Amino acid sequence: MTNLSGGLTVAWKELLFIGNPNSVRSLFLLTDGLANEGIQETNTLVQMVKRLTADSAEDVETALLEGLRMSSNRAAQLVDSATLGLTPENVQAPVSLFCFGYGPDHNSDMLQALAEATAGGGYYFVENDSDVYT
């Protein structure tokens, strides 16, 4: 099962709470691009990502909480309280999303739209594992 919304929301939350963030923050999504758990519709996923890139800490926190609750029971369990305690400093540096689609049947249109919803994001097709270096 691929829960793009759950994975993105949890990763975004972790990225926002890094102490002393760099002025450039990047999130790498490596996926088969077949959202079949949590939020599955491209437009809804894109709107979620756009809300996660808002300038207001309050708006981003609301988007995070909603994303966690809507995504899956497992992701919802990570929400300890009604607030996460985001501050303006947490959302000051923008987050760029880079989507890497694996497999011949991945949803390239969705991954491209998700990447384009962030400033400086990008989409890449991974034809085979040797295209990705560690």
Automatic annotation (TrEMBL):
Q: Which SUPFAM superfamilies does the entry link to?
A: vWA-like
Top-rank taxon: Eukaryota
UniProt cross-references to InterPro entries, sorted A to Z: VWF_A, vWFA_dom_sf
Q: Where is the VWFA domain?
A: 1-134
What is the protein name stated in its UniProt record?
Answer: VWFA domain-containing protein
Q: What is the native source organism of this protein?
A: Odontella aurita
